[in-house]
Amino acid sequence: MSQEINAASAPPDATEFDAVIVGAGFAGMYMLHRLRGLGLTARVFEVGDGVGGTWYWNRYPGARCDVESLEYQYGFSDEIQRDWTWTERYAAQPEILRYQNYVADRLDLRRDMRFSTRVTSAAYDERAGLWTIGTDRGDRVQARFCIMATGCLSAARVPDFEGLDEFEGAWYHTGDWPKEGVDFTGKRVAVIGTGSSGVQSIPLIAEQAAHLTVFQRTANFTLPAGNRPLPKEEIEKSKATLLQDRQHARTTPGGIICFEYNETLAAEMTPEDRKRELESRWNKGGFAFLGAFGDLMATHEANDQAADFARAKMRAVIENPDVVDLLLPNDHPIGVKRLCLDTHYLETFNAPHVELVDVRKTPIEKITAKGIRCGGKEYEADCIVFATGFDAMTGALTNIDIAGRNGAKLSEKWAAGPRTYLGLGSAGFPNLFFITGPGSPSVLSNMIVSIEQHVEWIADCIGRLTEGNIRSIEPKKEAEDLWVDHVNEVAAATLYPQANSWYMGANIPGKPRIFMPYAGGVGVYGEKLAEVAAADYEGFELGA
Length: 544
Ligand code: FAD
Ligand code: NAP
Hints:
Layout: H1 2-5, E1 16-22, H2 26-37, E2 42-45, H3 54-57, H4 78-83, H5 93-106, E3 113-114, E4 119-125, E5 130-135, E6 140-148, E7 170-173, E8 188-192, H6 196-208, E9 211-216, E10 222-224, H7 232-249, H8 271-284, H9 300-317, H10 324-327, E11 340-342, H11 345-348, E12 354-358, E13 364-367, E14 371-374, E15 377-380, E16 383-386, H12 395-398, E17 401-403, H13 410-413, E18 432-434, H14 447-467, E19 472-475, H15 477-492, H16 522-534, E20 540-543
Parallel strand pairs: 1-2, 1-6, 2-3, 4-17, 6-18, 7-16, 8-9, 8-16, 9-12, 10-11
Antiparallel strand pairs: 4-5, 5-6, 13-14, 14-15, 19-20
Helix pairs in contact: 2-14, 8-9, 14-16
Bound molecules: flavin-adenine dinucleotide and NADP nicotinamide-adenine-dinucleotide phosphate.
C-alpha cells in the first residue's frame, strides 16, 4: 500500500491528467487509489468541501447504514480493516464519515482532490482522444479517461411544490443537511416523505419537536433494524475473515454474506416452517427477512406470505387506531420498493403530538407562508423537512453536460431511459466509465462491494489499455442493446417493476419508467464482467 500512497501526483496547477474522476464518495476515493497504483495521474472533483459523498451530505438525525457496518466498509485493504473498529451493528452517519476521512488520510488522497467544485461539462475530442472537463470554478482540464463516481443517490430532489419561496420558516432536504445540525426543540415540524430517510429521521425529530406532521404518500414496509453495539468478539471474528468474506460476498446476489438465502420455494414449505423462517428472520432484524423463501421476490404467492406476516407485525406496534390502516402498505409487494429499517418509527405515531396526513388521498396543493396546504386545510409549521429522495441513478450524470462522439449528448441518448453496456459505459462515449451505473446491480446490492467490483474492473481495463498502447475503449451498440434487453428481461421475471419506485424512475414526474438496476445479482454479474475482460473486452470496441 505504501508504494501506492507515495505515487506521484500531478502538480497542483496541472491541467492534463491521465484520468479525471468526478465525485469523492466511496467510489471516487477508491478509484483514485487504484489509478495511483498504476502510476497514473488523476484529479478528483467534488461539489462538497470534503470526502464522503452520501455520508457527507446526509447528516439528518438518525442517518445510518442499513447494510451492517462489518460488511459496509472497504474490503480492499487488510491493514485498513484491521485498524478500524466499528461500534454499532449499523454505523451512524458521523462514524461512517469519520471512517472515510480516516481512509483519505491513510491513503493521502486529498492532494489529488479539488473540493467545492462541480463538474458542469465533459466533452470528448475525437481527434485528440481526450476528454475536456469543465467546472463551475472555470477549470478546463483534459484527460484520456473520465470516470463518473457521481453516485446513484446524490442528486437530492425537492418536488416542484408551488409556493416554497413564500414559506416563512426554514426548510431542509435530508440529502443536503446543514453541517451544524438543526435543533427542532419546541418547533412545529412538517416532514414530507416516508422512505428510508423519513423512517430514520422521523422518530428523532419527534423527540424534539413540539408538534410533528408527517405527510405520507405511500406507506412503506418497515422491518426491525435490531441495531445494537457490536461486541468485541464479533468484531475480532470479522477482522480475521473479512478478506475471504468479501470474496464470498462477491459471489452472492446482494453482496452481503449475513443475508443467508433460503433457496426453498414457499410452496415447498409447510405453513409452520414458513412461519418459523419468517419469525426468526424478523427477530434477527435487517434485510435477511427477504431471503426467507427462494421465490419471495419472484411470485405473488410467496411474496404475499411475507407481506402479510410483516403487516401483522407492524400492526401490533401501532396503538393509534386512527392511523394504523394508513401506515400499513397495501399497494405493492414487499421488497420491490427499498425496504426501510425501523428503529421506533411506527411507535412514533402513538405519541399525541405526532400527526399523519395521507397525501395520496389529498395531494399537497401548495406550500404557504405558514405551512403546507392539502385537502383544503393548512397545516402550520415552523420548519419543513423534505425527505423526498433523489433523481436516482441517472440524475447526477444527466446534470452534467456530457458530449461524446460528434458532440452527441448523453442526456439526449438517455431521454427514453439509460442505455449502457454492463452499467460501465455507453456507446458513443469512448473512455467514459460509470461506477455503479444504471444496468449494474448497484442499488440492489451492498454498494461498497459493487463499487469495489467496478473500480477494480475499470482499473484493470485502463492498465491493460495503457500497457497495450490502446487509445480507447467504448461499448459496441449491439452489445449495449443486448445488455439493455437482458436487464429488462431479468427485471420482468421479478416483482420489482410492479411498484412506483425510484428504481423505476417513478418518483420524478416525466422520467421514463424503466427498471434501472440489474436484478441478476452481484455474483452472476461479476462472472459476466470477468468473462468480458478475459475475452479481450468482448462487446467493446478498442481503438488502436
Ligand atoms: P456518493 O457517495 O453519492 O458520492 C458521489 C459524490 O459525487 C457526491 O459527493 C457528489 O457531491 C459528487 N458529485 C456528483 N456530481 C458531481 C459533479 N457534477 N461534480 C462534482 N462532484 C459531483 N448503500 C448501501 O449499500 N448500504 C447502505 O446502508 C446505504 N445507506 C445509504 C443511506 C443513505 C442516506 C443514502 C442516501 C444512500 C445509502 N446507500 C447505502 C447508498 C450509498 O449512496 C452508497 O452506499 C455509497 O455511499 C455510494 O458511494 P458513491 O461514491 O458511489 O456515491
Ligand atoms: P425515497 O425512498 O425516494 O423516499 C421519498 C419519499 O418522499 C417517499 O415516501 C415518496 O413517496 C415521498 N415523496 C416524493 N415526492 C413526493 C411528493 N411530491 N409528494 C408527497 N410525497 C412525496 O427517498 P429516501 O428516503 O431519501 O431514500 C432513497 C434511498 O436512499 C433509499 O431507498 C435507500 O436506498 C437509500 N437510503 C438508505 C438509508 C439507510 O437506511 N441506510 C437511509 C436513507 C436512504 P412515494 O413513495 O409515494 O414516491
